[in-house]
Amino acid sequence: MSSNFGKPIDAQKPSVVSPAAAAIISLVVPGLGQVLAGSFRKGLVLLASLTSIVALWYWRVRLVGRLEPTFPQAVSKSFYLQPILLVVAIGMIVTYLWIAYDAYVTAKRAQTTSGFVVWTLILFLFFFLGWQIGDIRPVALVRDAQDAGPFMMRILWPWDRAISRPEELLTGTVKVQTPCVEPVPELPQEVAGEPYISVTPTCGDLSKQSEATGTTLTLTGRNFAPNAETEIWWQDDMGNEFRQRQAGEYITVMTDENGAFAIDIIMPYRTIPQSDTREFALWELQARQVASLGAAEPSAELLISIEKMVETIFLGMMSTFFGIILSVPISFLAARNLMSTSWITLVIYYVVRAILNIIRSIEPLIWAVIAIIVVGLGPFAGIVALTVHTIASLGKLYSEAIESIDPGPIEAIQATGANWLQTVMFAVVPQIIPPFVSFTIYRWDINVRMSTVIGLVGGGGIGFVLIQWIRLLDYKAAGIAVWFIALTVTILDYVSAEIRARFV
User: Fold this and answer.
1) What domain count does the chain have?
2) Checking CA distances to 254, which of 93, 178, 318, 377 falls within 20 to 30 Å?
3) Residue 252, SS3?
């Protein structure tokens, strides 16, 4: 049998049927003709491949045409909505016929390219199915890429968000009561040189939901900074603040050259909790103006990113450290050349390898979720998850390094009458130090990068705040975290290269 690369996969046995019979049999059961023609593996792989393609095509047709009552109608609809499924259907027919032709050629022992063609057809069919299942849309990618431009720019250059300047506010306040019941609030006393606002009337009714039906208030102010924008804010008597909108826009007013202003506003809509049974509420109306900005200082997002990045580095380091300690002894138990001396040690070998395979097959994210259930949210859960996965991964890599060592020193040591432990110490350990160091550094790099992902499910590290900022659409803060991740991985790559150059 020949693969699509022309290399022998298995020796072809004599055919038990004629070429014509092999072709006809493959028309009934694709691949069976090749089996009877002596290419057992080739026939089974062709049968499994074409069966998988047909099953996948049927699933996608049913999914696209799920609202149609009959299968032919579902096929017609799926071909209309997803023309690539029509291409796959034509390809399946061509592949089916070509498999029959290949069975004829295989039974005839003719040297042709039929095998290469049939494998190429199968690969293309899987590719087209993958294109449809993956919902790949290059046109949409190109068309919509410009819409993502502003968001990407915030991530690629977020450094204006890394610096903050404390704001010094000029604020004037006045009390407003709702509804109008006696006694109504009095206007505040004016202090010379201090921002002052007054409102007429000092009571009124709130707007109803989606309707600006509240009382119109005339707000005047003075002693503010001249020719500057002033924002209008409200605060209820429970301390909740919100900036007022009117006609869908935030209300702002510009002061004149004397720092004074006057504006009419409508009392806003505000939901009052049902548990609040008071007949009236006392509001505070505020006019705020930024007077000056303080000295530049690191923003809260920058400080959080630094803190969480340090936590991420140590999360990866500690999980690697614990993983090394536990995986080294396990690796010797998982090395076949060391554990094949008796049936007892061989059983231990198979058990250890099976456990390592099971643990390694479960992604660190799943282990993180399990660890969070046990120890709760935080970096400890991330360390536990990465340590478990590191033990399985390094255990496998270390054991394979042990299995590939030169058996000469082992035989020489054993010839002197050394026991198992002495053989490991003097014949195995000196040979495995370089690959162990290389695998350890590589795993440390993986753990640091994985620790950023572990945080997405609550396992600590910078990934935890990164996913929060993305969900809040705070792309500049997310950009700071992404930059720290990229810089840290780059530095660790340089450090690991230096360590590897010294020890490997």
Assistant:
1) 3
2) 178
3) strand
